[in-house]
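Office hours follow-up: a student asked to see two folded examples consecutively, so here they are.
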Amino acid sequence: MDNFLRYFIADIGQLFYDFIDIFSAIFQFLFRLVNFPGRMEVIKANNSEFTTLDWIMLLIANLALVALIVIAVIFLIKLLRRLFRFRVPVKKYEELKNQVKQMQKDLIRANYEKDRLLAMRMEMIGGEAPGLDDEKEEKDIDSNRNTMETPPIDPMDSRFFRLTAVDNYFKSPEYAAPEYETDITLPEFCARFRLYAASQLHLYYDIRLLRHFVASFGAARIVILQGISGTGKTSLPYAFGKFVQNDSTVVSVQPAWRERTELYGYFNEFTKKYTETDFLKAIYEANFKKDPHLIILDEMNIARVEYYFAEMLSILEMPRQDEWKIDVVTATWDNDPVHIKGGKLQIPNTTWFIGTINNDDSTFAVADKVYDRAIPIDLDSRAAIFDEGTADPIYITADRLNELFDEAKATYRISDENMKKLEEMNEYLINNFKLAFGNRIMKQLKDYVPCYMACGGTELEGIDFMVAKKVLRKFESLSLGFMKDELTRFSSYLDKQFGKNTMAICKEYIDYLKKMN
């Protein structure tokens, strides 16, 4: 025991004394720091032979010491604040957490109420809003009267509130698929659409415009309606949704949109909920229906289209329709909506995207990559009011509409004579304007013209429209001020190639280009 005590005093005891010396040294430091009389005595004992430089160095040394002390005090105060900062008591923290959860529920219910009010407004404008009922939330979510193989999921328990509510509606006995018409033709479809819009909605359209609009669905998934304000760019796809009894979804583009989350939403790591957009909900709901559905991007160029819509442009370029999938979430949960598979959502072949464009100083120019993938249609004037009878809305499946387009492409092929003329025109444009038909434009032309002919138009009208909208539009990027003579010769070339005044849309567009400069 004595040996251990000697060891303890020699080793552990010495460590203890050294530890005490730390505080002793700090005390001595502070005592010397504030012992101004003692420090003055030291200065007096050494300043008898100080030069000017020595006094300057003395001043600098003391200023540095003061600065060091101030920094140390500030650091100590911050350290103490961090150590003793205000902490919420456990009880108060639980109350705040419950309030946040309640606010999340209120926000989700507010989104639902917005959908219901929008549906009621659409119903007041004309037609019945499908898929929403005054008591839908309570009936679909909380009742057990459905006949699903699996019970419905309470949307409040899912990170996808709105999509889960859609699941519950379409799995419930309340939903029944309509009886679809199967014997309608494309000319009848266009004619009935025109009469329905005029008699039921008081919207008047020229039959050629409707042929262009409907035929575009057979050539592309994106249609751009452009023109001055008030010509019916939004009302046309709206009327189409009413006609097929599957309301179009209107998505108002905002100037601040710059990325994909503006369209598809995002998962909030804090709330553990997915912020769902009208765009995402529309695509998801289209997976349950067979009806053609239009999603309207209203004033799509009020923000840069190639920023927020870039992913969709790439997806729709995929050769197979089963590759048209949106990445929604990276990880899957057991109670995710039924059509979110592997974190991805399928874009069904029932969906088309309609962009409306105002060409003015408040908007951005639309990039070629957008125009090349779309069918642009100009709406520059309103049709005269007419009364030619009435027509009822129809039920038609998107598959039937696509079948009509496929039949048209097999029946109304572009003639060999006109294909040869188009090839010669391509050579002419290359030699004189350094422009050419791209493969994508040629494919769209071969798809569009037969569909337009099947809708009741002529072959040359379809060619005229596509050449003007898809090829001549590229002339705007050229220095037209030095090309008026070339444009005049090209107008004469069109008359010689296709017949005098046959290519009316192209010639009108050439005159417009000449006036621009």
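And the second, which I mentioned at the end of office hours:
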Amino acid sequence: MSKRFTKIICMATAVISALGIASAAGCSNYFDSASLGGNYAGEAVSNGGFAVGKGDYIYFLNGVEGNTADNSYGKPVKGAIYRISNTNLKSRNYNAAEKVVPVVAYSSNYDTGIFAYGDYIYYGTPSTAKNSEGEVQNSVLDMKRSKLDGTETMRNAYISFPSLNYDYRFVEENGVVYLMYVAEDETLFEESSGVTNLHSLNTQTGVDTLLVYNVSNVTFDAQNKSNSRVYYTMNVRDYTTSQNYGYNQLYTVTASATENKFADLSSETVNGWDDENDRYINCGELVLDGIGSVGNEITAFNKEKNLVNELNYTYSPAKYVNGTLFYTRTTPTNSGAYLFSLQDNTVTNSITGNANPDDRILSDGSSAKNYEYIFNGKELTAVINAEGTGISINKFVGGKLQPSDKLDDSDDYFKIVKDGTATLLSVDTENKWLYYSVSGGNGYSIHRVDYSGNRGEYTPMPAGETDKTPVKILDLDADSSWYKPEFINGYLLFASETANMTAYNYVMCFDLHADNSDKLMTNGEIRTLNELYNGIEKLIDDTYGDKDKYPTKDYANVQKALKYAKYSGDYDYLKELAVAVNAKIEEDDDLVYSEQTLKEYEKFLTPTADNIWADYNKTRTVNGETVYANVQKYYYGVLGEMTEADVKAYMDGLKSAYLEDYPEDDTTWYEGLSTGEKVGFIVGVCVGGLAVIAGVTVLIVYLVKKGKKQSDEPKRRRMKVDTTDDKDIDVYAD
């Protein structure tokens, strides 16, 4: 390899074709469409998931769509980027969402999603380019942006990833948006295949900077996905033996870095360095150096010359949140992964900055990457962890977390959820809510508990007692193979796997606000809502299951019909169906849908104080329609737009599950005609028949005349053969 690689700085012109971003290429790089207008100024809320708040709107992915769907500009509905105004959300006008970016926004890495900065939204989308055989390259991920008013969607990508699961972030630093990404099996340089590199692409200039070559581990901010700072570890190599030393180093870098801090490495500065084949690129700042006093030598990679630790240290970043990195450290004499923490920009010496072993937060940090870290400002106060069955809170007291054998043994470490195998979903530190899922549903069930209480408040007690008693939110199930549910401005958004919706996975919205209030519901209010919601089908079964009072003969199929009404609220179809199926029964058979059944259906749709639905006569306006509390839309609904095909399939599924099949039309084609059509048909047949008769007559006349003409011609004389006495002649032979 040429020495040009030993002198290379981190900046590399991008592997991008026809970038064209806001540059001389002008608008040629954009699909133009009419502006949706609106105010989208201000800081983004919840960047990096499937939904982000910006200005007066929440922008979101309109359901779960795969990379193989038709991604031609303008066609996608499902998976496209939509927005809904905060006003429409508050009014529950969920179908008032607008399509902003008519392409499928996609990534199979569900730790990162869409980002909004300034006037633009940034995202990944499956490529629509074709190979030489005409095959769409939809396993390639194009990184693009569009304007937040729906205009200026890029035609060409900033960069195209060769696979769909890249770890990336769109971040902003000093007013410039960068795309930071981790590239495995890197091919930026021909010889670099097989290593993992960290890049930063400047979306203004198109310059792709190779920040770190051959990185071991990269840790992005798990909470603030707009953070341009990352931490990573690097092995330290002994080039004389072509082996790594028994320690590693911890570095940090931000997106705007461009200078390779090791550009002067050569055979003159590194023992065993091969000027032709060796490469080391690193634009970051050394934070901690794990070099020990035995078996190592000071190299060009050790910033603090002549300083070493007593033992070799190996660092493993666990989680980076709130400007604090949590990491584990092992040594040759301790493989127990001591857990430590450090805050941004607090270490000034990479050797003396190493924490004393006695200052460890926890002796076993093997689960530290799964913790939810709770802060008061910059100070750690506790961690929440799903362990075994239930969920625990471990309080940070005296610079320590409590060891695992102290669980439920003190007021500092105890279970706040005692049952179920749980998955942590989200923490609302402002309101002290923990949201989590319990295994056993279609996807992520959604539960909530106040985590701020004392140990005694979480002992078993009657449901509904306090906010410290966990509560499940309705029957909400979120797709567990996609992004986790989002909690934005008091609204819960999730890709639905609820009853009858598992095949469609559109985004649904549940309003966490109490009625006529900007405050969130208490757990007690959610329990009351649960009782109301879960009571619908129970009331149907308990009431109409009494066959003495509601005999099947007079109330045929009433139970399933009312469950259909719960999901659809559709009466016109049932009336049409009743006429059709009842017309097919024999004279003495019971009606499939009786008049009494239809009357009970009407009562369901209009609850009053004097019918069995008296407890459900509360109303809400949803999508401009008044709905009662016994219809699902009263509680939550689809946010955005479903395709026509999915709407039909969904309704067909409800009809199939709860209603009788619509009878097939078994009438003959003639019986299906109207009276006028029958008269027309008869006249047509008569006219056609006369035409046929006339044609046959003409043909006969023609043939007769032709035969007569032929008979008038002189006949040819034929030879006569006498065969009467000749037995050898077969007169019947052909």
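Two things to take away from it. Residues 235 and 497 are 44 Å apart (CA to CA). Residues 1-27, 713-734 have pLDDT under 50 and may be disordered.
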